[in-house]
């Protein structure tokens, strides 16, 4: 599924409810909460903070997907086409950072474009 389809599916789901989209600052708070959950999981796995006894395992993929969901919600609520925005961002990185790092030997394809 591409980002446009993901945005449509999120909108279809949210449109089922009278409450609709939350206000922007509520969505930002929600995004911050989700990023905090990702930070906690990463700290448990790779940092110096072990999980508490009995604390359930979390799936990294689902924590990332929760963040993506909220990002899609924010984009929808603000009328942003994330497919277009990501294309513009990839072009920015491609041009701005083209000579920033050392290319791998035998390079292969490392372009951010199609």
H/E element string?
HHHH
What is the third-level CATH name, the topology?
Answer: Helix Hairpins
In total, how many domains does the architecture comprise?
1
Kindly provide the name of the CATH class. Answer: Mainly Alpha
Output mean pLDDT: 92
Helix vs. strand class? mainly alpha
Distance between the termini: 16 Å
Level of helix content? 55-70%
Broad shape? flat
Strand content: under 5%
Cα-atom radius of gyration: 18 Å
Number of distinct beta strands: 0
CATH-assigned homologous superfamily = MazG-like
Question: Which stretches are low in confidence, meaning pLDDT under 50 for 5 or more residues running?
Answer: none
Number of helices: 4
The CATH architecture assignment turns out to be Orthogonal Bundle
* Largest sheet features: none
Notes on the protein architecture:
By secondary structure, the protein is mostly helical. It has a single domain (3-96), classed as MazG-like (Helix Hairpins). 61% of the residues lie in helices and 0% in strands. It has helices spanning 3-14, 24-46, 60-78, 82-96. The longest helix has 23 residues, at 24-46. The radius of gyration is 18 Å and the shape is flat. The mean pLDDT is 92.
């Amino acid at each position: 599924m591409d980002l446009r389809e993901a945005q449509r599916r999120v909108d279809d789901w949210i449109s089922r409810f009278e409450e609709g989209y939350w206000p922007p600052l509520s969505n930002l708070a929600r995004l911050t909460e989700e990023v905090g959950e990702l930070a906690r999981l990463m700290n448990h796995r790779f940092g110096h903070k072990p999980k508490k006894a009995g604390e359930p395992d979390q799936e990294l993929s689902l924590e990332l997907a929760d963040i993506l969901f909220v990002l899609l919600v924010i984009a929808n609520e603000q009328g942003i086409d994330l497919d277009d925005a990501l294309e513009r961002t990839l072009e920015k990185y491609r041009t701005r950072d083209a000579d920033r790092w050392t290319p791998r030997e035998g390079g292969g394809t490392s372009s951010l474009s199609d």
